[in-house]
Amino acid sequence: MPRKHRAARDRPLRLDEVERPLGVAPAWAQVTGTTVRAVSGERAKTYRCPGCHQEIRAGTPHLVVVEHGDVEGRRHWHTGCWRRELRRLGRAV
Ligand SMILES: [Zn+2]
User: Fold this and answer.
1) 50: CA distance to ligand 1 center in Å?
2) How far does the centroid of ligand 1 lie from the alpha carbon of residue 52, in Å?
C-alpha cells in the first residue's frame, strides 16, 4: 500500500509553532479592554515594571500593555509580573 501523503496542515504542531510569534502575547496575558503585545526587548531601552518596580533591562523579552483609549499610558511589564497582576485582579484566564 502506498504511503499516503500527509498534507502539511495535518501534521502535529511543534511546540514552537504553538508558541506565540513575536508581537502577539500569549492567550493568558490577554485582558478585556487592553492590548497586550510581546516584545523581544532587543531594541528597547530600559523600562521600569509597574508590578515589581524593578528595571526591565534592554534585551529582556517582556510584555507591553496598553489600556484601550490610553495610548500614552502603555506600560512595560515583566511577563511574570503581568501574570501575577492578572491573578491579583482576578482577571487571570
Ligand atoms: Zn516586574
Assistant:
1) 6
2) 4
